[in-house]
Amino acid sequence: xxxxxxxxxxxRLVGANGEQxxxxxxxxxxxxxxxxxxxxxxxxxxxxPPVCRIMDYGKFRYEQQKKEKEARKNQKIxxxxxxxxxxxxxxxxxxxxxxxxxxxxxEGDKVKCSVRFRGREITHANVGQKILERVKTEVADLCTVExxxxxxxxSMIMILAPKSQ
Length: 165
Prior knowledge:
By secondary structure, this protein is an alpha/beta fold. It has helices at about 25-35, 55-75, 90-105, 125-140, and strands at about 10-15, 20-25, 40-45, 50-55, 80-85, 110-115, 145-150, 155-160. Helix content is about 35%, strand content about 35%.
């Protein structure tokens, strides 16, 4: 709340340079802000009495938005990439998919490794378990296992998360 939106009788006032002015009636505090050609901003409405500060509210909002934008720019959005394996995968196909897993982990993305079972392959779920265990042991130095291999419907799923740098 700023200026006329403040509806309490008295406020603890902080000056434009951060100095404590003390407890003042709201009208007097607002007049001091107007005389300084600044705004009266309620910075702690839950305090008894509420704490208000004399500041340039437009400049304050601009600085705040700039900080938020900078923080958004520096954050990394983690995607979940999915790599499908088959229970009867050949060695070369496995190596190709394994390279993709390593590439995704190095880029900082999580990887969802899945083994899809078709038809009667589901009766040999231990084969899919072995494939996912092999992937897990080969990338143990690059990542941590966020979710152990688990059978869900006709797929066995494991999620790998990159180790933080």
